[in-house]
Amino acid sequence: MKIIKGLYIGILLFLNTALIGLELYKNTIRDQWAEGSVIGEEAYYQLQQLHGVTNFITLLLTFLILGGALGLVLWKKKELIKPQIIATLGISLLFYVTALITALITDAPRGNLSQHVHSMTGAVAVILIFLLISRYFNRNERKVRGLIH
């Protein structure tokens, strides 16, 4: 299980780093376009391609987080969901701070650099809602069982 935890954290770190790198590259293309050193159509085409890649990676991040939690539920390892949530929120915080610092150092927009963090925290929110609903139903199921027996 330690290998899977390490792999999960490693993939999250890699994908987040890739997203920040791609956003910085997109910003470079925008700057070159504004300066006139890149043809408008060419810059637009590159930005569209990069936008598609960043959307795909953000979606992949979201599915990784949700899929990881679903896998833990299916493998009856619910006790590992809390560490997964803590790790995911820790990485989210790390990359949010990284995005803020990067935005201060470069002229890249802060929102673009940190937008993927919102997807990660949204996925964690979905997991938390699922856990709350499942706890509620489990508690009510025990009450009903107690009345029947």
UniProtKB/TrEMBL annotation:
It is a multi-pass membrane protein. It holds the Pfam family DUF1751. The chain crosses the membrane at residues 7-25, 56-74, 86-105, 117-137. Keywords: Membrane, Transmembrane, Transmembrane helix. One of its GO terms (cellular component) is membrane. GO terms for biological process: retrograde vesicle-mediated transport, Golgi to endoplasmic reticulum. The keyword Transmembrane helix applies. It is found in: Membrane. Its main location: membrane. This is DUF1751 domain-containing protein. It comes from Isachenkonia alkalipeptolytica.
